[in-house]
Amino acid sequence: MELEYLKIIITICLAVIGWLIAHSFTARRDLKNKQRELSTTHLINAYRILTNDVANRELTDERKEKLENILADIQLFGSKKQVEFAKNLAITVAEGNQFELNPLINSLRNDLRKELNLSKVEGNIKWLRFTKSK
After folding, report:
1. What's the whole-model pTM score?
2. Using one digit for the tens of pLDDT, what is the confidence trace for 8-66?
3. Which of 23, 26, 77, 114 is the most buried (most CB within 10 A)?
4. Distances (CA, A) of 72 to 46, 52, 69, 79, 134
5. Is 30 exposed, middle or buried, given 0-12, 13-18 or 19+ CB atoms closer than 10 A?
6. Where is the chain membrane-spanning (predicted)?
7. Measured between alpha carbons, how far is 33 from 99 in angstroms, rounded to an integer?
8. Spatial CA neighbour of 76 closest among 39, 51, 111
């Protein structure tokens, strides 16, 4: 009779340990997925603002503020390479020099396409800009 109780206790303990291990792995996976989702969302937003609002446009006060915020987001969520591009861009803009966005935009595009399981695209973006009608 005692052997039956021992078997039941061991079975229950193994089930609880298995559940705890599975829960731990699931929690880690969920956290990693949430981090990836948050990072991807911010980098997509940064990419959109850089390509639509900043690149090849006159830098108004509003666009300057957007660029400041985007560079901060990229330095928080971007890859090491993107962080370096963002730092260099910030220094170049602060010094009042002409700046090139293509390296940063291409890096963002390549990493986002990889994260979204899309094929790699070579070359720079082609810009379409309309002039304002009078």
Report:
1. 0.75
2. 999 999 999 999 999 999 999 999 999 999 999 999 999 999 998 888 788 889 988 99
3. 77
4. 10, 18, 5, 13, 36
5. exposed
6. 6-26
7. 34
8. 39
